[in-house]
Each structure stands twice: as C-alpha cells, then as structure tokens.
Write the structure tokens for this entry.
Amino acid sequence: MMNQIDLSRADLNLLVLFEILMEERHAGRSAERLHLSPSAVSHGLGRLRKLLDDPLFLRTPKGLVPTARATELAAPVSEILSRIRGVVSSSAPFDPARSTRRFVIGAPDGTSAVFLPPLLEALGKNAPGIDIGVRQILPMQGQPAPDLAWKQALTDLEAREMDIAVIPFDDVPVRFHKQTLYEEDFVIAARAGHPFQKAPGLRNYCAMQHLVVSHTGDAYGFVDVELARQGLSRRVALTVPNFAFALGVLAETDLVSALPRRFVEMHGPRFGIVAVKAPIALPRFAINLVLPKVAMMDAGIGWLVAVLEQTRMSETRKPKRSI
C-alpha cells in the first residue's frame, strides 16, 4: 500500500497502465492501446510491481494472469481513475453533447426503475457520451426516525461516493439541496385475473397470501402497522429483496403485494401485473433528489439535476393509466 512519501514520487500514469493490463491481460495489446513500445510497458510494469510491492501479473502461455492482489486493486484503481477523469473533464466548460463523464445516482430499485427510463431517453438524444451508474441504496433497518434511516446515504453523498441520491426522505440538513421529483403512493399488485381483482375488500385482502419486499427478510412492514391498528393481520408467505424480483414472482403465483404505484404502472404490464386500489390507507410520500449544495457548483452535476427535473415534468404531463 502506498504511503504519503511514495505517492509524492509516484507516476499516476502507472495506474492507467495497470487498468489497461487488467482489461487486456496481454502486454502487446496493452502497448498498442497506450501507444507505447512493448519495452516501455515492461518497464512500467516493473515500476508498478515495486510501487505496489506485488508481482501483479504472472506471465503464462495464454497471456498475463493477475495475482490476487491485482484483482483486489482493480476496482479501487478504476474508481480513482474515474474520479480523476471527472475532475479533469470538469475543468473545461461542460458540454453535455460532447462530454464522456460518468455520474453515479443512488436510489432504491423501485425508484430508479421509475426515473431511469426517461433519463436514458433524454441522454440518448442530448448527451450520448455520458454514462450513468445506478447504486442501490436502502434505509438502515431498525432506525426509529427517517434522518437516521437515511444517514448513510447522506454520508456517502458528502464522501462523493455518489453524485446524487433519489430517496423518499424530506427533512434533509440545510447543507443539502433537495428537489421533489414526484409523489408516490402504493397500490396492491397482483397477476391479471387474480381473484382479488373481483373482490378487493379488506377482509379478502387479509385472507390472501402476501409478498413483502424486504432486503433483510423482515416480513413486518407499514401494511402490518395499519392492519394492527384495525385489529387485523395477514400472512406474509414470502419476502424478496427487491421490487423487480417481486414482479416476476407475482406473475407466476397467487401472492399479492403492496408496491409503489408508478413502478407498477411502468413495469407491471410486461409481467402481466395489474394494480388494484388498496383497501386500507397506505402512506404517500415525496421522492426527492438530494445532493450537497456545494456539488451544485459542478456544472455537470447541475446539468444532470436539471435533466432529472425535466424528465419528471414530462412524466407528470403523461396521462395516467386507469386502475
């Protein structure tokens, strides 16, 4: 591991060489991509080995095979270079039509599945070189208040581990910028032709077998809180870790599940899933775009915020499907 003295003498181009060698697994092809001679690549690899105190790549008849240490370093080095490229590209005036920047957006999967399709459509038309990384983020389980449940997401934003978070959290600290993308509520999702469609009453709902989306496997959720308030309960026959998985299961079973309305409207039809009005009061909440205010000084991030806002506006103008 490099210490501060090593870093002051290090050539960061060696990290680029490491990245290319990891991709090509061949010294000759790496030399061609870098426009270097084979001897220069060999010399650079020697310096890398000394810098990182590991052989890194072993020569075999089939090419270069990375060591365990090289494999361990691949992701961190890629992340470092991605950030450096972002810094360099942001030093010039930001031009979305020509930019090749990569932005990371964190969101629960039921949320990213809603904003991502119109975002990708907008990027394809106006910014074809920009890449997007979607990072799955979830509230911390067992926390008594929303500010604690989403604390890690805010920490990751300030650490620049992601550029923007899109989360159901309103009360953000003043150092963060917040913008509502859309309002969300829940419907009961089930396969088309499910018996619950014909008799969507509360008693019948409680008699059904239920699916709950829970990345921890905890079956008790906001539906159970409302049912308990009315002296009722239900059987949760299955938990799954994400919303996309839930649609696939609902399509093949008689289970029902409370899922976000927009998510079901956008993706349910492909699975033969229909939405039925919930027979109990379920929460309604804002889905907010959140990022540090200081990050808005980055022209590229400010542009991405504006694009997300524009896709939200176009979505609200679309006629809603009947349920």
In short: Confidence is low (pLDDT under 50) at residues 1-5, 316-323. The two ends are 58 Å apart (CA to CA).
